Amino acid sequence: MEKLKDKRAEYEATASSDSSVNLDDIDNRIITEVLGPKSSQQYMPSVNQAQAEVQRLRDQMAQMQASTVEQIAQLKAEAASRKEKAQRKYNKLQLQLKAEAAAREAEQQENMTNSNYSFRI
Fold it and tell me: Residues annotated as region Disordered (predicted)?
């Protein structure tokens, strides 16, 4: 561990005087120098692993998007079904009201006819 700290101090001193040294890469260089190249691979995923992870995340996003689109389509279908059912109920009530109004009008006509008839007698 002490060896890692010493190497870090050495690289930081070099980085402060040499602008070509990348500060972000210091940890990876130290691990590689002190522990060897194989151990640095343990700490840093390979390009293939990173690409595989990116692809996995893209696939997951595509699956979530497809699922969302499917849910939206299902909700739209359910809403259309409810709207159609409400429209049928509205039409039925309208017919019922018209029939009741026609029946009342016919009853009034009949009452007027009967009252006119009773005056003639």
Answer: 1-20
